[in-house]
Amino acid sequence: MALPPSPRHEKDDRPWWLVVLVLIGVVLAVVIITNDIYTQVFRTVVNGAGITVFVTLVAFVLATVLGLGIALLGLSDNIVLRQVARFYIEIIRGIPILVLLFYIAFVGAPGVVAAYNFLITPLVKAGIAEPILVRDLSLMWRAIIALMIGYSSFIAEIFRAGFQSVDIGQIEAAKSLGLSRYRRFRLVVFPQAIRVIFPPLSNDFVSMVKDSSLVSVLGVSDITQMGKVYASGSFRFFETYSIVTYIYLILTIGLSLFLRRIEKKMKQMPRR
């Protein structure tokens, strides 16, 4: 069995891996600047960074809100709500993100359009409203909804574990003080649970940055799609996908370091 690291070992464990990565990144940046081919590839591929960031941020915020709602349903006193939450989590977690993406885009969206057009049939006949077409639903938003649904089940479990990690004795003490359910959650449960919730939640955020590349299968112009289009036209697969990898590493490693810094600051905050 491996022994835990000594305090001296932890102190000397400097992030040399990060130094090596920064040096490699600088070398690659110089290559991109000085090499015309890499410069052209970079300028093309980086145009999709805005879509990647937008899809990730919107999908993650929506997934977090939905996941929190599902987690609260799962902790409800009502058995029906608990069973509904568990059913949702188990079903969604069992579907691969890519399959869910195709299902929402090519099955869910047409179904929603058909249902909407059916409901507004009287209004259409009266000339008040007009039916919509499947193509009116943006592929980007279909992808965002798919990522939201897919990640919400995992985020719901993160919230559930965090809330259940709070000592039941503190909750009972808050009850004895006459605090309402909402105030117990806001003042007692959530401030303590967030320390447990934040690390896995931040990991899911970084994972979503990578999984956002799946939207390229729908033709959404993110980083991966821009690289795919350029490579198929120029046949410079090595240069193109090297640049795609480079940009994703900048996004994910930079985000991981930022979130890790926030996590350390949260650990240093005094407990209530």
Any descriptors?
single chain; 272 residues; mainly alpha; MetI-like fold; 12 helices; 79% helix
CATH topology: MetI-like fold
**Helix proportion of residues, in percent?**
over 70%
Structurally, how many domains make up the residues? 1
User: How much of the sequence is in beta strands?
Assistant: under 5%
Number of helices: 12
Give the overall shape.
flat
Quaternary state of this entry equals: single chain
Which spans have pLDDT < 50 for at least 5 consecutive residues? none
Plain-language structure description:
It is a single chain. Helix content is 79%, strand content 0%. The two termini are 36 Å apart. By secondary structure, it is an all-alpha fold. The longest helix has 32 residues, at 237-268. The model has no long low-confidence stretch (mean pLDDT 87). The chain has one domain: MetI-like fold (Orthogonal Bundle), CATH 1.10.3720. The protein has helices at 7-12, 16-34, 36-45, 49-74, 79-93, 97-119, 121-125, 139-164, 168-176, 181-211, 223-234, 237-268.
